[in-house]
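thought: fold this chain, then report.
action: predict
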Amino acid sequence: MKNWTGLTPMARIEVVIDGEHVPTIRDLLLSAGATGYTAVHGVSGFGHGGQHEGRLLFNDRNSLSMVISIVPIDSAEPLIAGIRKVLELRHGVMFVSETHVSRAEYFRPAQD
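observation:
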């Protein structure tokens, strides 16, 4: 991958999962040292499980959600392993890619 001047390589982890399981993924991310995440509810698409509509029925737990987080590459492996274990028991998919960020300090845990 191109080495972008002034940007820091990081791992981008995206998980598409039933909305009711977002708290599990969120807790796993935060306990592994992620400094934040973005959750997008009402995700729609077509895949292995067939067609999924993006409409919210009654709340954000009754539809698919995507959880996105950026973590340092050196701390990604155990997090990826933990998410894979969660996905063994639930419907969902994980995408992992290298990305580059302009403010690396936003994505590293604060030093005591």
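thought: worth noting. The chain has a mean pLDDT of 85.
final: tokens above.
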